[in-house]
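Acyl-CoA desaturase: structure tokens wanted.
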Amino acid sequence: MENNKPAEQAEFHSFGWYAARVSPHMPKKAFKAVPGRLWGGLIYAVIALGGIFSIAFFDLNIWLKFLIAGVLGSSFASLGFLGHEILHGTVVRKRWLRNFLGAVAFWPLTTGPELWKKWHNMEHHHHTQDEHKDPDAWPSVNKLAKSRFLRWMYRIPFTIRALSGFIALAFTFTLHSSHMFVTYIKDFNKEKQVKVWVQFILPWATWIGLLLWIGPVKWIFAFLLPLLIANFIVMAYISTNHRLNPLVPVNDPLANSLTVTVPKWVDVLHFNFSYHTEHHLFPGMNPKYYPIVKRRIKDMWPDRYHEMPMSKAMIALWKTPRVYFEQDQLVDPTRAAAYGSLGNGLDPNDIKSRDVDLSKLKLGKKKEE
Ligand SMILES: [Zn+2]
Ligand SMILES: [Zn+2]
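Answer:
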């Protein structure tokens, strides 16, 4: 394989290494918990309850129902972003309050706080883009060779696969969250297991209770459609945060993460969730200060940092496959075509592939074309 990495890119540093170099330049208050962010959460919660009750109690015009469903979906997603922050401890410090508020904020997305902390804080943050340990990382071609489902998926023609991949963003978060429950439930001790079960069942019980109360038609607008919209919004970030980056041997956030840029008002609505590289350097920092972290990173390591508009990242995601080959290439096994990853030859302005030889991998299908 050709090696087109710049020499300095070849070495990796941990997130602690970067954090130690950036934190002296940060104001102390950036590391303080900010309960004031809960006001934003309260506004979203009031909007969400208002929307659900207006659909439940009134016979509204269909267009108004769609509009309310859109607002609900957007509020569900924003509450999820706030829940993410709360459970990183950047909003309140008291453990019980953190768990309680995190549970409330994640209620619409039906993810319990204990499960989230294990899946996201422990596993995703500590093992980002580690093929085996990051629960959010996409598989390599070696795993593909072992999975009948993945092999089947990559035989679907490209456009249909890309389109299905995008439609799937509308339910992937909920699906993945349930998968995480199954994956990690046995890792908790007996006492915690009960907690995790209760936190999984209670939100679903509420939403199913709502279905029984208001009936399926209203429920579609009050919960199901908003849930799909919220899934799409959070997945638009989650899928662009790491999936264009390589798998890495060291958890180096500048190599394995992408910061997307969105209009300022979107950052306000989503609590600066777009600053994902900065978040991986400082998961415990008030995101209001991420723009300062970004300036520092760009001063110190301009060649290593990746950022692009969300729309460009989504287009790149559409055009590239999601199977890793030799850690830093993305490969379409059906066409035996490899694309680079960010920092490793992928140019989002000009996405090109080259042929690779996958014949040794026994993918159950010979190379076409
Ligand atoms: Zn991440
Ligand atoms: Zn996080």
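Residues 84, 88, 120, 125, 279, 283 surround zinc ion (ligand 2) (CB under 6 Å). Residues 29-324 form one domain.

Cheers.
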